[in-house]
Predict the 3D structure of the following.
Amino acid sequence: MNKKIKTYEDLEEEKLRLLSLLKTQESTIRTDIAGLKENLKPLGAAMDTINKLTTRDNRVPVLNIGLEMGIDLLMRKLLLSKAGWFTKIIIPFVVKNYTSHILGEEKREFIIKKLKNLFKKMRPSSQPRPDPMATDQ
């Protein structure tokens, strides 16, 4: 406060000055928060990668079972055949967790659709199919 308030007009002027000061400080805080969010994006990406390495995505268990069997065969039997026991445990664990997250939603839906079609072919429906040679006249 720069001067003493003596009249009602002085009070109104001070109110307007304080409101404009409040607006500028709010905008400064907003820009600071936006800058912090921008600066923390690499940390968020690193945390996301660590999360993918330490957790497994179990939305499609059939797909994960196939991935696990393939990774076990490839990693433990071929690539890490001469490695120590600790390496044979940790590396496949991390690779399994990460590969369960690699498939995107589009690919996941495509694979689920293909598996459903495969199971439909293996187990035909109980309703008889119409004869394709029959003509409708």
